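lol so apparently i was supposed to do this last week
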Amino acid sequence: MHLGVGDVHARLPISGPVIRLTVAEKGGFLATRSRAAMPNVTVEGEKTFPVEPGKKLVLAIEDAGIDIMHRCGGNARCTTCRVQVVSGEPAPMGDLERERLARESSLGPDIRLSCQIRVESDLTVRVLNRASAVGVTPGPRPAD
Ligand code: FES
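anyway here it is w/ FE2/S2 (inorganic) cluster bound
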């Protein structure tokens, strides 16, 4: 492969920093790194905020000061952290999330467990369960 003089941009891995390679006049590369733009999460009726790529959605929401339940501590057991995805494309469900939501026949396909989603791109969601609404604590903080 021949590259002309100029810049080549690559992102390795998908959620990692942008690697900028500059093809020098006499051959070889100069490599520099820059941070990828952070995705934005919008919680309907609340606010929009940037999120470090790869952060769990439930933690991003809570750390933004928004009331959200997570009664099982992020273990895909309770479903209290569920959100409705209004727009955006979260990563596909893993086995734990798919199997747990399959037991909830009344939930639509746009309902996801925020403790099982790692934010990689812009998302707009609706928080469905708030601790303050039912007078309980949110639950143990899910692990990073
Ligand atoms: S399923 Fe319990 S916190 Fe997500």
